[in-house]
Amino acid sequence: MATTLMGRAATLAALIGLAACAPQPKDPQPGAPETAGKPSRWAADPFPSTYEPYASGVTAIRGATILTGAGAKIDNGVVVLSGGKIAAVGGADVAIPDGATVIEANGKWVTPGVIDIHSHLGDYPSPSMASTSDGNEATAPNTAQVWAEHSVWPQDPGFTRALAGGITSLQILPGSANLFGGRSAILKNVPARTVQGMKFPEAPYGLKMACGENPKRVYGEKGGPSTRMGNFAGYRAAWIEAADYKKKWEKYWDEKDAFDKKKGAKPAAGAEEAKEPEAPTRDLKLETLAMALGGDIVVNMHCYRGDEMALVIDMAKEFGYKVTTFHHGVEAYKAADLLAENGVCAAVWADWWGFKLEAYDTIRENAALIHAQPNGCAIIHSDDQYGIQRLNQEAGKAMADGNRIGLNITPEQAIGWITSNPAKAMGIGDKTGSLEAGKMADVVLWSANPFSVYAQAEKVFVDGALLFDRSDPKRSPRMDFEIGQLGQGFTGGAGQ
Q1: Contacts with 54 (C-beta within 8 Å, 6 or more apart), sequence order
Q2: Could you tell me if 246 and 280 are in contact, meaning their C-beta atoms sit under 8 angstroms apart?
Q3: Residue 472 forms part of a structural domain
Q4: How far apart are CA 327 and CA 220, in angstroms?
Q5: pTM: predicted TM-score of the whole model, two decimal places
Q6: Is 150 contained in some domain?
Q7: Is residue 338, in this structure, part of any structural domain at all?
């Protein structure tokens, strides 16, 4: 035990020393690349987003302290929302359009909408029922063919509770039973009849993978893998197969392009007329993996241990794909420099660990030490129906723990852990995650400093529409499921 504690202390001291000596970025700087909007030759999404913003007018929030999510703090600031977008943000001299609804916010704070990069709402609804527990397709180690959106129950009351906590966008991931759990879906946190009505427009899909204890526990008596080496053998075999599948389709597309260019042309004397190439048979599992290899799908890796993160990064280099985020990275502080060097974010809890062996060895300064690396990308996530309601407080705890060891993290930096950093890692950072002109008007008005345990989200705007107002019962949404369920739990609306 003494050796273990001394090892942890030495690691912490070394990381603090590195952080103190390294040049500090002015703003949170996620390292994951943007993939949204990237042209793709793969089949179009057969379940396209039908999301349409709720109606909104012109709104100006005046007098608040503003954390932009892009590294700035503005005292006595003004934010103007118009046409569903951020029209202007700045100091008290920002012009307010005639006819705008003006919200006087002296003593209050404004931030971008909070984004949860790791949620299971809709797939594991609250209240929890066996009939709606649909997050893990635990039938094979590789279920890359399943899509989380096909399990999302839009009437999950957890969505409205999250809205009352300032959540405007979230990524719904499959569970972590499998080596390859399937595709994730990015949603706007709005009431809708269908999951398509919640899907974030033009957001890339994500691939959920898991390493460590979970896959070997689930499949150890089902034919394997039963060890970590079995896990990695399974990943690599799947990537080899996916790479071959990708080559077949690329060969077909090249041949089809050549055929189309010659279509209608008279063949040369003695030459046979060209035959249209035959497309390979589609395979949903391999299609998802091949798209990940090509950068069309963002890779999210459930991984607790720092040493495994290093192995996964090497594997990604072997096959030419990129892990954008390690989720649940309780040991990310041990590999913080490696993650930063490779442009990989770490999504972590503020202070939750110890529930299984691979989750034992974390420290409260985990997120702060990730952030402190040059170009480090720290993200605070939930994985929980209750945690998602107070990600602002979780980020506040993590900031305080970092400052306790002298890292001097400011609120304007820490707000990026729950706004701009997850947006960037999810491939939607060009659309949301910060208060910048032209981006979606996803905005939260807080009663106080959002990192305070006393702060509440007073008003939440999604694409400029006021969808939650703590002072107005008409803006405190209830799901159809809750109506008439007297005696069956909470039925008072999101803000009650």
Answers
A1: 190, 462, 463, 465, 467
A2: no
A3: yes
A4: 23
A5: 0.91
A6: yes
A7: yes
pLDDT per position as a tens digit, 404-427: 999 999 999 999 999 999 999 999
Q: Which tokens in the block code for residue 479?
A: 């799901």
The answer for 290, left when phi > 0, alpha when psi is -120 to 50, beta otherwise, is: alpha
**Side chain identity at residue 453, one-letter code:** V
Q: What tokens were used for 216?
A: 């070997």
Task: Tell me the backbone φ, ψ of residue 314, rounded to 5 degrees.
Answer: -65, -40
Return the amino acid letter for 147.
W
Write the CA distances from 222 to 217, 218, 219, integer angstroms.
Answer: 10, 8, 5
- The helix, strand and coil proportions of the chain, stated in percent and rounded to the nearest 5, come to 30, 20, 50
Calculate the alpha carbon distances from 18 to 121, 209, 407 in Å.
Answer: 38, 30, 11
Q: Are 173 and 399 in contact (CB under 8 A)?
A: no
CATH of the domain at 300: 3.20.20.140
Phi and psi for 378 in degrees, rounded to 5? -95, 140
Euclidean distance between CA atoms 230 and 27, whole angstroms = 40
What range defines the domain where residue 342 resides?
18-231+283-482
Radius of gyration of the chain (CA): 24
Domain count, the chain: 1
Q: Looking at the chain, how many residues does it have?
A: 496
In a domain, 260, yes or no: no
The pLDDT tens digits for 221-274 are 999 999 999 999 999 999 999 999 999 999 999 999 999 988 867 777 766 778
Alpha-carbon distances, residue 55 vs 234, 259, 440, 447, 467 (angstroms)? 48, 48, 14, 25, 10
Q: Which two tokens stand for residue 395?
A: 């980020």
What tokens were used for 62? 């005046």
Q: What is the rounded CA–CA span in Å between residue 16 and residue 414?
A: 18
How far apart, in whole angstroms, are the C-alpha atoms of residue 428 and residue 431?
5
